[in-house]
Each structure stands twice: as C-alpha cells, then as structure tokens.
Amino acid sequence: MSRIVRAAAIQISPVLGDDGLGTARKVCQTIRNAAEKGVNLMVFPETFVPYYPYFSFIQPAFRMGAEHLELYERAVIIPGPVTDMVAEAARQTGTVVVLGVNERDFGTLYNTQIIFDATGEILLKRRKITPTYHERMIWGQGDGAGLKVVDSAAGRIGALACWEHYNPLARYALMTQHEDIHCAQFPGSLVGQIFADQMEVTLRHHALESGCFVVNATGWLTEEQIKDISGDPALEGPLRGGCFTAIVSPEGKLLAPPLTEGEGMVIADLDFALITKRKRMMDSVGHYARPELLSLLQDRHPARTVHYAREPEQEVPPALSHNEVAP
C-alpha cells in the first residue's frame, strides 16, 4: 500500500554566544517554515541545541575547561524549557521532529537524540552509545535502552548519531525493529570533504541494507562562527566541509540534490511503496536472514549506578532514573 510522507533534512547554523535558547528558538521557527511547505517530518543536526562542541576538536583538553563548563550551563534538561518549546512547535504544526541536543543529567552531558511526535509527545530520548574521539572528553556514554524504533505520525522511526553508523550491530538492532525511516545526524562543518564523502557512502548503504528511507541532517557554521570558535587562522581548516544533508530512498537513491554548503533544507516525498519493493528482493531481517547461524544479543535495560537489594517482605523504592530527584 502506498503512503506518502514529506520529509525535510535541515541544515542551519546554531546561535552562539547567547543564553543557550537562541538555537532552540531558531529550531522552532524552522519547524514552522518547513510546515508551511507541507513537511510531515523534519530532522535537525547532531547536538544542534545549543551547539555542537566544535571547540573540543581543535583544542587540547587542558585548554577547553571554560568552554566545556559553558556548555554545561547552556545544555538541555529533559524535560525542560527547550523541550517544551519544541514540543509546542511540533504540536502546533502537526509535524514529527527529530532533534539533537547536548543533554545535562546532573553532572554529566550526553549526546542525545529526541523524537517528538506530531502531538508534541516525546516518543524517544536516546543517548549516543559511544562518543567519538575528541567527544569522549565532553559526553558520557549512552546505553542500549535507546536502541529502539518508535511508532510516530510519520511512520516507524529509528535514529543514530554520526559514527554510530559505523557500529553494524547498533544499526542491525534498529533494522530488526523494521524502521520505515532512519533519521541520521552528523555535526557538519568538520573534517573536510572526506567526511562528506564517507557520510554519503554510509547513509546510502544503510538505506539499501535496511530497506528504509534515510533522512540525514548536518550542521553549518558561518565564516564568522568559524573564526570565533577557532581564534586562530591555522585552526579554521578543520571546521570547514563535512556537510551532506540528504534524503535517501530504500533503493539507495538520493531523492533530491544533497546540501553541502550554506543553510537550507532538503525536502522529498517518501513513498512507502518503495520499502516493500526493496524488501521483496532483500529483507535482511526476514527472508534474507539466517538467525540459526547469526543473531544479535541486545541489552535494552537502562544503565544504573545502583541496584537495591530487597528484603523478602519489604518493598524497596526503585533506583532514581535520569532527572528524578529523591523526595
């Protein structure tokens, strides 16, 4: 059965140097602009709110303490003012929104992906399972609880951030849950053209292997922002290139020209009939799988730092979950 969902992959620049809410306001305005174009699903870049920690890529650890602390102050609490703003914009426009944020949970920051349904409800909050290279100085590790696909007004959606796409078992965990649409997020404005080239290969391969649509968003830095972040002309180069905002069909085809420079959005209509067309030929978690030979073990329990023993006749309150405070 054919079903059409209009998707938008968003490539915009963050708002730097404000109270941390400027980028969130820009997200909400972009949601409204995209909704006017008939968009049902929109994807924003990795840790876009308040901004990706580009400073950590070009500074040694002993120099970035002040900027790391500043990111703590501007990071997103879930739920909180930022998620309330975005949820309301999603609800008002009736759109599904996938947003990357720096989440603060007490003393740790996380690279977090949030999926808002068209009602404004948060369907999924997941944390990047392994921060990459320089990112390990910034974020903590996520857990398997977020490796799941959710039903939304736009279809069954899964999400991974950046180099999580180089973890084949993480991708397979989502594939086994039958993604209709895979939402990918990368920082953009990083590493150079080779990053964009690698990104294209990765995204198109996942679309083919999983038989789903892939909507990918990368961020963009203006020349002024590059100069402000680097503080040194010799360090500006690593903050250019690496943008590949695109939408891919289950057959691995780019559904619109990708965006590799500047702000904008890539919009395409996703015809779900193409999912069945692809999977009739190759369903990697169905008729093309060999579970008696190869299978995946996944632990989907949230990570906890404390486990309470129980007395036979005594009920003990569960351990605090993230962002809960003891009475």
CATH superfamily, by name, is Carbon-nitrogen hydrolase
Q: Work out the number of β strands.
A: 11
Helix-strand topology string? EHEHHHEEEEEHEHEHEEH
Proportion of beta-strand residues: 15-25%
Integer count of domains: 1
How many individual helices? Answer: 8
Q: Trace the largest sheet across and list its strands.
A: 5-4-3-2-1-11
Commentary on this structure:
This protein has helices spanning 22-35, 55-58, 65-74, 81-93, 168-175, 193-210, 223-230, 273-281, and strands at residues 4-11, 41-43, 96-105, 108-116, 122-127, 150-152, 155-161, 181-186, 213-218, 246-248, 264-271. Strand 6 (150-152) and strand 7 form a beta hairpin. Helix 1 packs parallel to helix 4. With 327 residues, the protein is of the alpha/beta class. It is built from eight helices and eleven strands. The protein has one domain: Nitrilase/N-carbamoyl-D-aminoacid amidohydrolase.
